[in-house]
Specification:
By secondary structure, the chain is mainly alpha-helical. It has seven helices and three strands; from the N terminus they run H-E-E-H-H-H-H-H-E-H. The chain has a three-stranded antiparallel β-sheet with strand order 1-2-3. Helix 1 packs across helix 7 and helix 3 packs across helix 7.
Amino acid sequence: SNYSTTEIQRMGLSLQINRYDKIIAERTKSVMYMNERLSQNSAIIPQPLGTDDIKPTYHLYMIQLDPEKAGGDIQILKQKLDIRGVTNIPHFGPLYRFDILRSIGDYNEEEIAASCPVCEDAFNYRFTHLPIYGLLQDQLDYMADMILESVSEMQRGI
């Protein structure tokens, strides 16, 4: 295969690279805001902010729950957010759960799942991702409000 870019693609990529620092700064600001807002409820585990050696790009906001403190798991929260119009993007999951891998080979998915209990727990009960980049402040406010409201409902058994 030939993976060379065209001149037009190169121009677009160059423009994006020139905006990289600004994009990362905006994303970081949004993630820090969400972490601050969501820290109001101890059932919500804040998104890691990275280190000197690990510099996230924050293309999504990772929301993670402690199911015991939340009074329910991430599946319940996702349903509540859907009702409120808050998009969540659960696309980081165990590879053996994706249709493309099911089509490639014949394997026992449940047997593999049983051998990966931490992965299964995280994916099914603890986390999902939310869009973060390009949102206006009122959109971030709404998203944070709806997450806090939803988790509060879960804690009250609603």
